[in-house]
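Bit of a strange request maybe. I'm writing a small parser for structure token strings and I need a real example to test against, not something I typed by hand. Could someone generate the tokens for this chain?
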Amino acid sequence: MHARRVSAPRRRSKSLALAAALGLLASSGLVHARPWIEPGDMRARHSLQWLVDQGCLNIPLSTWPVMWADISPALDNPDAAAFCRDSLAWRYLRFERDFHASERLQASLTAGAASREPLFRDFAGGPREEGEIAARLEWVGGGLAVGLAGSYSHDPRDGDRARYDGSYLAGTLGNWVLGAGAIDRWWGPGWHSSTVMSTNARPVPGVWINRKSARPSGWRPASWLGPWNIIAFAGRMEGERVVPNPYLLGARATFRPWRHLEIGLSRTAQWGGEGRPQSWSSLWDSIRGKDNLTAEQGEGPGNQLGGGDIRLGFPLGSAAIGLYVQATGEDEAGSMPSKFMTMSGVDLATRWWGGEQRVYLEYADTTAGSWSERRPNVAYEHSTYQTGYRFNGRNIASTWEGDSLVTTLGAMHFFRNGSDLGLTISQAHLNRDGTMRGRAAGGSVPVLELPDAQKVMIYAASYRRPLLGGRITLAGYYTDKEIDTVLRSWSRGTLMASWEYRFD
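Reply from user aminoacidic:
Good idea to test on real output. This should exercise your parser:
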């Protein structure tokens, strides 16, 4: 498994106070020591997707983290088809579940290193800095789940050497989970990219609420939705921005009205911050999307993104195929999102040579209006929130930033002995308009973007295997030319390694 990132911005007093209040919400239901599967484990994601496409599970999978409460009962079902129970996917998820499912104190240690700060990130994650060491304690009891994480990063670009990313406090109230902390999120069906939220940036600390189980609604008018989930969160962004300390608000709903179809609807907004309206009426205007105002009406209350995604998945014997598309609007027209950035792809899962494989082809166009009239210098930018849709200098959504066109071919092989191998090739035309967009306030973290248009081929590989009672991941990528950023030129090669040890 990849190294855990455990850091947090400097201003967290409000989030920690809210976290403490969640202790009042405990119920008697069992919560796993980590109630969810985090983004970052590509084998867990492949395993879940194969089981869903084969009909062994029927749960939404495009919103990460994914709750164990949706998975664990199915893994214990003695009537499950032998075809499901005999798969490597089923066995791997049971192994992970059995580690996290007991009511006991759990500890893990991770260490990661890279030849430089990695410029690009996908779902698999990996080290964020040149050097990281992290420890994590997790405990469950009485309906509460607590994760305390701390790490030290060597010479990070954002200056935060001591970090607390990955820390959380979560409690259950009926079929709802209320939580506070700083955890990674990935929204959308893409394997390599997302147009609305990914793990490219460090997690924004905040509070959230989501359904514990995606079981279908018992209310007849909503029963057609099938299994469904919803999450809403509110976080506080860093102070070193053009508009310091804005709030990041987000909500996402997913549902499966047909066993082969998953639909997701997402919305995020930057709102408030120093010098900006923070009244209840301003918040209500932002929630209802009243942002595109005329000069006579005044300035809009926030910076919003909104859109949706769909995935169709079907079994092909022991194989499975999926088709997916995601569209996120940078603007609003007629109370609906417009000027879409898009991502689409196809994936195929197979079971050959005693293991399991997944191949995907993914296409991302992060120019606003990619389906209609192209609007350069709009995606992930805003006239008021001029640091843009970024946290500590990195895009919260696409690792490719705005105005980019990228095609990625990826292949993964999952061995029976627990090892896995991944390869990707990306043909990228980055910052096609050739204009620098995001602004950083004086003394803040530089925005990690390209100053001009650049075409580049990116070849990446990763290998994970058990080692010394833990798991080691070796990874890296190579580009056919140096990449110039506003900070410096990135040399062609980047090597990474991480090792995780779990204390039983």
